Amino acid sequence: HEKSTDAAREIFDELNRKKGGLKPDEISYATLMDSYGKAGQVSEAQEIFETMKKTTAFKPNFIHYSSLLWGYTKAGNNEAIESVLGEVMDMVGRGKLEESQVDSNLWNSVIAAWANSGEARDIKNIIHIIGRLQNMEIEQGNKLVTIHTLNIVISAFTNQNSVEGAEAAEALFCWMQNQEDDELKPNSDTFLGLIVAWSKAGDPTKCQGLLKKFLVLKETNTIRDGRMGHSHHFGAVIDAWAKSNHPQRAVKANAVFDQMKPHGLTPDVVPYTSLMWAWAKSGARNSEKQVEKLFLELSHKLKTGDAHSYNAYIYGLSHSNNITWLEKANRALAQATKQGIHLNAYHYNTLMAAWSSHGRLDEVESIFQEMQKGYKDGNLDLLPDFKQYSTILVACSKAGQPERATKVLSEWVDSFRKGEIAGKPGEREFNSVLQAWLRSGRPEAAQKAENGLRQMFKLAESGEFDCFPNARSFTSVISAYLPSARYKKEIAVHILLLLNKLEELAEKNKEDPKMQPTIVTYTEVIAAVSPTGTSVHDAKEISRLIQSIFSLSRDDDNIDLLWTTDPGRNIGKAKHALRRSNIPGKHLLLQELDKVKRVALGVVRSQRHGAWRHVDDDKWR
Question: How far apart are CA 222 and CA 436, in angstroms?
């Protein structure tokens, strides 16, 4: 209960106020400290601890230190844990505390805290403590190393999220199997910990093999049960397949799920949700139907959904190209809200991004408004962050709504300056506004886009925002000017000046691929210069641009950047403008463009087959 610590403290203080008679004793102090620790109020626990040391006739013993350590464990404060543990060992060394009083509870609190960190240094500390406890067992005859302690160490290795961590967990598992003391041999929780370790190491096949071994032991009654139900073992393997990149991950996860019933297990939220994620991320045909089927089954079992299942359900539907499934995801979001299920900002952003990809700004803004309303109504997990603003900006850009994009960006900048949002807009978001002007197709679009380009330079130079214009920024402005360039020579000249500026910046920033002009940049400029070009100088400029495209294609570092668009379409656009022009020697320039097109399409085909070959220079000439 949220007021339980207040009630406990009130009784404790009442005992202290009484004159004579009953007074708080060691157990009273330990109980109150434990109450504070479990509530995460470790500073209050520390206050009681200090009061006890200074004002009472009795002094803290291992029970009080253990309560304090568990409080710091819950708070994740490893530095404080090491400090308290150092104090304990110092007092033992000075004879102020008897080492024989120690029990596994104190050491388990320390081990749990170090296990949660996953740091290599803390793993070594755990192993050192285990060794010390075993020596103390021999001296005292007390049971200090328990299966629970060893399972905590397994979880410590698991938290390293690596193959090395999983191998270390398996080494400890094998050591436990060889112990003469049956109480230290692996139980069902140990198997679960090892399965999770290999899941986090990214090896679902290994996880499935461990599950098979566990089931054999379970059927022969040769393994003890731990604290966790056996459905968690299946859930962990399903989750391992779901998180893998295996092309058949959904099918593999489904096969594990189907094994649960024959083993007398009823799937709960974890296996259902993990399987939903497997199908949601699989990219398989009709995966939405599988996700919906599982969600409806789980909802029927629970009589309602939960945040995790709604998350997987909304994610699965949001990745469909079918608007019908997105509409179902909208209804699911509304249903969760109606049921009082507190979803977080991730759920909303997933759906916003899906509608944005379909160019539905109206849906994106509607979902964002619902999110803001939920936050105002008390769901603090719905505090809008930079992800939502970024998603709306992209949607505004795709919809060609520059005023709305500008307003959203301004709101984001203001919120960042006020400290309300941690993430700040960068070049991608500022570029979204330029692209919104480009897509608007308005007469003033080019000038507005160029004003935005200047603003990016200004803000970047001030050091406040990382929005220094890149090739995409310049290309957006050039493309916005293109319609006017067909009729006005001065616009074509201005476009060439913009390109020259970009090429200067690219030369100064050779290591930054984002600054390098792309095939889109050069073909847009060719299409702009051709209609009003009439001189030999214009012909030479266009030839230079064509040569630039080819020379960039010879640089491996630029291949991905250059050929991510449709080169045939881009070059076709430039050829169309050049063919209709009065440029002298245009037939030779068209031949050069055809050669570039063949090179570009060859690169695309090579990339699709996972290979890249440079075009022979002699063949080009």
Answer: 67
Please report the sign of the dihedral spanned by the C-alpha atoms of residue 128, residue 131, residue 137, residue 142.
positive
> pLDDT per residue over 254-272, tens digit each?
999 999 999 999 888 889 9
Q: Could you say which residues of the chain have pLDDT below 70? A: 1-2, 19-21, 56, 74, 76, 78, 89, 92-93, 95-124, 129, 131-144, 304-305, 552-565, 603-621
- DSSP H helices in 306-426: 307-318, 323-338, 345-357, 361-376, 386-398, 402-417
Pick from 203, 262, 190: which is nearest to 232 by CA?
190
57 alpha carbon, distance to own chain's centre:
53
Q: How many residues does this entry show for the chain?
A: 621
pLDDT tens digit sequence for 47-64? 888 888 777 677 777 778
Q: Tell me the DSSP string of 539-569.
A: HHHHHHHHHHHHHHHT-GGGHHHHTSS-HHH
Picking from 48, 87, 86, the residue whose alpha carbon sits closest to that of residue 67 is: 48
Pull the structure tokens for residue 86: 């150092």
Distance CA 221, CA 463 (A): 67
CA angle 11, 16, 21 (to 5 degrees): 100
Q: What 3 state SS string does 26-68 have?
A: HHHHHHHHHHHHHCCCHHHHHHHHHHHHHHCCCCCCHHHHHHH
Of the candidates 253, 323, 241, the one whose C-alpha atom is nearest the C-alpha of residue 288 is: 323
Q: Are 347 and 387 spatial neighbours (Cβ–Cβ below 8 Å)?
A: no
> Exposed/middle/buried for 146, CB within 10 Å: 0-12, 13-18, 19+?
middle
Q: Quick one: which of 445, 451, 469, 530 has its CA closest to 496?
A: 530
Comparing C-alpha atoms, which of 86, 68, 69, 78 is closest to residue 29? 68
